[in-house]
Structure formats: structure tokens, C-alpha cells
Amino acid sequence: MQPYVPAPEDTDAEWNYRARHETPTQRLDRNWSHILQELRVVQTGMQILTGFLLTLPFQQRFSDLQHFEKDLYLLTLAMSAAATIVLVAPAAMHRLLFRRHALALLVEQGQRFAVAGLLLLGGALAGVLTLTFDVVVNRTTGLVAGGCAVLLAITLWFWYPLHLAHRTHLGHLLRQPEDPQ
Q: Which one, of 37, 133, 118, lies nearest residue 79 by Cα?
């Protein structure tokens, strides 16, 4: 049995109907469920990071930080808090738009919030690493560690998935078994 390979002229909706036998509404439900699952993976860690950062100023050594380190801390805290807010936004939007037949809008905006939240999360993680390495080792090591975190996040969260999609023209990623008719 040959795997299903979408024709180049297939739209996403046509492919989903032919390969999955799902209606547009079923597709929206599935997409919304996927967004929520992905956000659940990220939210817990993001909230723990934000909570940890909120406690730092109350530590005894915090007053020993240099001006650069305090500025970096505040920027990192702001990115972490913003990431938390952005990653929780789709759930809040769902609650406010519940039973208003806005699922297509929720899926579209949930995608945008998820990407924006990942960007902010990447920035917050890079900031935490930069600050930690700066305090423990030195400024140069901190900047290198933060730069490596940015590079790794961009590579694994954005470049590599887009590279795979481009390289395969999504054909290998979208293959579904044919119906045994």
C-alpha cells in the first residue's frame, strides 16, 4: 500500500478532507486542541521561571549586582512575565469568546500568540543564562552563554522546522495511509 502524498494543487482544507475525512469544524477543533496541548507544555516551565525571577530581588546578594546585571535582570523578568501573559492569552480569549462561534479566530490568534510566546520565552531563557553566567563566571562568559541559548532556540524552534518543511515540501510530514478501499 502506497502512502498518501498530497498533490501540489491540494489546499490544506482539501488535504484534510481527503486524508483525514474531517470537516472544517472538526479540523478547527483538532487544531485548537493541538495549540492548547503545546501551550500546556510551555506554560508550566514559563510560570516557574517567572516565579523564580520574582523572588531574586529579595535575596541577600541581589544588592551586590552591578548596574548591567540589574538591568539585564529587569529585562529578563519583563520578557518572562510577558511570555507568561502571551502564552496564557489563548485560554483567556477562549473563555471570553466561548459559544460565540469564533473557533477559526481562536485558532488563528492562538497560533500567533504561541509563536510570540516562544520568542519571549527564548529571550527570557537567554537572559537568565546570561545573568547567571555573568554572576558566577564573568560578563564575557555570560554573553556567550546567552548568545548560545538564543542560537539554539532559533535553530530548534524556528529554523529547523521551517527547513524540514521546505526541504520535504511537507510531503514526508503530511503522508497519511490510503484508505484500504
A: 118
In three state form, how does the secondary structure of the chain look?
A: CCEECCCCCCCHHHHHHHHHCCCHHHHHHHHHHHHHHHHHHHHHHHHHHHHHHHHHHHCHHHHHCCHHHHHHHHHHHHHHHHHHHHHHHHHHHHHHHCCCCCHHHHHHHHHHHHHHHHHHHHHHHHHHHHHHHHHHCCHHHHHHHHHHHHHHHHHHHHHHHHHHHHHHCCHHHHCEECCCC
Q: From 15, 91, 10, 84, select the one nearest 54 (Cα to Cα).
A: 84
For the segment 113-171, what is each residue's pLDDT rounded down to a tens digit? 999 999 999 999 999 999 999 999 999 999 999 999 999 999 999 999 888 887 776 55
Amino acid at 111: Q
pTM of the model: 0.78
Query: Could you give the dihedral angle defined by the CA atoms of residues 23, 157, 84 and 35, in that order, rounded to the nearest 10 degrees?
Result: 10
CA distance 148 to 158: 15
Q: How many CB atoms lie within 10 A of CB 28?
A: 17
Q: How far is CA 158 from the centre of its chain?
A: 9
Cα distance between residue 100 and residue 109, in whole Å? 15
Q: Which three cell numbers stand for residue 44?
A: 508550566
The amino acid at residue 38 is E
